[in-house]
Amino acid sequence: MVHKGDLVVIGISVGLALGILIASLIFFGIWWYKKRSNLRQCSNERILPTLPIRMNGLGTSNDFSASLASSITIRGSEHPQKSSPVSSWWNHHSKDQFASASGILRYSYKDIQKATQKFTTVLGQGSFGPVYKAVMPTGEVLAVKVLASNSKQGEKEFQTEISLLGRLHHRNLVNLLGYCIDKGSHMLIYQFMSNGSLANHLYNDEERFLSWEERLQIALDISHGIEYLHEGAVPPVIHRDLKSANILLDQSMRAKVADFGLSNEEDQQMELSRMASIKDGD
């Protein structure tokens, strides 16, 4: 015959055993989750490169491959890897495929020609080349910047924009959406800004007057875009050509900074030297 006291002891023992078992399972689950997270993080750091932002463009795929390989770091090592699966991958793929893999779409010359009505929808003429309005079959409106054939540094700038602008995304920057390399033409496809440039609104009498509230908001938008280029990009991006013509306005009159990342190497070195001397002077 089992006494009542024995039943109490058995119940307490079973309860404690179950409690310990449940606590052990919870502890093991937490430990396993953290271990998997750490393994995943280490795996990502070993596979994914931190691509450098090159301000002076990329002359050849070998140049970019070397830059890519030198940027890959492994946790626990302060020295860059000389060779990696990523650099091997790059050697067997073109810059065009890399841009597509980065989320930048490639368009054919035929598609752009049709969308721009055989390049008759001119929006303006910039230092990089003419800009056209393009209406895609989906109804999406884009801006197509065509590399001027007589531009001495156009090829360099074109490669720079694809590799650099594809990594920079901010609500106050004109984002690169696509590109075209076809029939000897190089084109960049951007967001379409329906209200044109800030310069048109400031200096064109035919445009409506900007209220002081709008001007203040535009100034804030510009400052946020430049702040991102200086603080959010690694290394920082120096615009070097910030002017009202390079500030574009969307349908809500919100400003976006355009034509950044086009500085040549000499310009950037001069700017970095100037900033360094200012810092030393402080």
From TrEMBL:
Its EC number is 2.7.11.1. Keywords: ATP-binding, Kinase, Membrane, Nucleotide-binding, Serine/threonine-protein kinase, Transferase, Transmembrane, Transmembrane helix. SMART domains: S_TKc (SM00220). Residues 117-282 form the Protein kinase domain. The chain crosses the membrane at residues 7-33. InterPro entries: Kinase-like_dom_sf, Prot_kinase_dom, Ser-Thr/Tyr_kinase_cat_dom, Ser/Thr_kinase_AS. It is an enzyme of class 2 (transferase). Pfam families: PK_Tyr_Ser-Thr. The keyword GTP-binding does not apply. It catalyses: L-seryl-[protein] + ATP = O-phospho-L-seryl-[protein] + ADP + H(+); L-threonyl-[protein] + ATP = O-phospho-L-threonyl-[protein] + ADP + H(+). This is non-specific serine/threonine protein kinase.
